[in-house]
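Render this sequence as a predicted structure.
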Amino acid sequence: MSSPPALSATEQYPNASELEDCLAHLAALAHDPTPRPVYVTMVPVYGGKPPMYSVVLRSRDRENIRQKLSEVLNRQLCLGVTAFSLKANEAQLVIQYRNRDSDRNSVCV
């Protein structure tokens, strides 16, 4: 039997659009009416290290999103910040949060 092909570093981690969707879901939970409240790009890090994610908050009322994201990440984001980076493990936390929230909502329906 042959072993499965090795995954590249970027295939092991969420892509930028998946994280952007999850952060938009988080913004909706924070009652943000902005159609596309966040913009995310994946920044590759060389040397076999996990990628970073550059996040830009587009919403006018960013504070609610920052507070909700701070709860999910269990760390504070600076007051007034409009752009920040997430580590790959933090991106995975955001996606896991959305998946748990979706599972809870589907059970409650």
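Summary. The helical segments are 16-29, 62-73, 88-108. The chain has one domain: 9-108.
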